Amino acid sequence: MSVPMLNKMHMNGYDVLSVNNGPWRVCTQGDRLGSFASREEALAFAAALPGYKARPGKPRNQQAT
Is there a contact between 43 and 11 (Cβ–Cβ < 8 Å)? Predict the structure, then answer.
């Protein structure tokens, strides 16, 4: 039985990861932006993107009573 192997890095707020020596992927929390054959290509793509900062959830409507 083999154990899955995860390689994960961060660049400009994006996750750059590879699972079981598969393709390298550039992702946000909810989207996959690209898939690449090498780590260098994925890091170059992530570096070329504008900085990513996760947006907070919907603001709560607080009413004074």
Answer: yes
At 43, is the secondary structure helix, strand, or coil?
helix
| Phi, psi of 32, deg, nearest 5 | -100, 120
Domain boundaries, the chain: 6-48
41 three-state secondary structure: helix
Distance of alpha carbon 5 from alpha carbon 13, whole angstroms: 22
Predicted TM-score (pTM) of this structure: 0.72
Element spanning 62, H or E: none
Give the residues of the chain that fall short of pLDDT 70.
1, 54-55, 57-65
Could you give the CA distance from residue 47 to residue 61 in angstroms, rounded to a whole number?
A: 37
